[in-house]
Amino acid sequence: xxxxxxxxxxxxxxxxxxxxxxxxxxxxxxxxxxxxxxxxxxxxxxxxxxxxxxxxxxxxxxxxxxxxxxxxxxxxxxxxxxxxxxxxxxxxxxxxxxxxxxxxxxxxxxxxxxxxxxxxxxxxxxxxxxxxxxxxxxxxxxxxxxxxxxxxxxxxxxxxxxxxxxxxxxxxxxxxxxxxxxxxxxxxxxxxxxxxxxxxxxxxxxxxxxxxxxxxxxxxxxxxxxxxxxxxxxxxxxxxxxxxxxxxxxxxxxxxxxxxxx
Length: 262
Hints:
CATH architecture of the largest domain: Alpha-Beta Complex
Pfam families: ECH_1
EC number: 4.2.1.18
Keywords: Lyase
Largest sheet: 6 strands, mixed
CATH superfamily of the largest domain: 2-enoyl-CoA Hydratase, Chain A, domain 1
Strand order of the largest sheet: 1-2-3-4-6-9
Protein name: Methylglutaconyl-CoA hydratase
Structural class: alpha/beta
Low-confidence stretches: 257-262
Distance between the termini: 39 Å
Organism: Actinoplanes digitatis
CATH topology of the largest domain: 2-enoyl-CoA Hydratase, Chain A, domain 1
């Protein structure tokens, strides 16, 4: 039985965690299937962005603790494979959007933080529950800590307390928290905006968001100026400017999406 399903429509690949029986826990099989799904979306030229969603009431309950206990003595524990998943999402050249309609715990928060944009319901709940199990949120810190306000990170890492979607948005874990009946519309609005960006420009902008600053302001500006000039000279850049001047959608915009300004 597949634990991860993919459906593609109008440039958006929706990758769905589909293991509700164990609350979409991060088993080795689910994570391998998730990596496969991301790999397929990466090479599919029709896919412009990825939405990570879920079936069942829980987005992701974190590590599969039963599997972890069984594998501890004999094999690679799922927490180690999680590093591959987080890196794949964080480094993915196409935008990744997380749709969270229910609770997330521990490793599930790492998935959310790895996404470029995350939208949850206001009543969704979250917790870094690791300390209450006698372990630490080590692997997910690579994606979580760059997102969270430092005081909030200390509060929730150390206490393991549960917080809701509104608080998740306040501290930077998610982009937006909305009412449950508005979640799909909010996700669709972000997805519709993403596919209007040039594919190469989106990839370059993701690199911009991740790049370390240069040692000096002049070195920083020299690098950024070179990047800017390269994109303006590119075929994609020329097409985008021409489309703007001619008041038409750029050639890369899927025709089934509304191309009006967001």
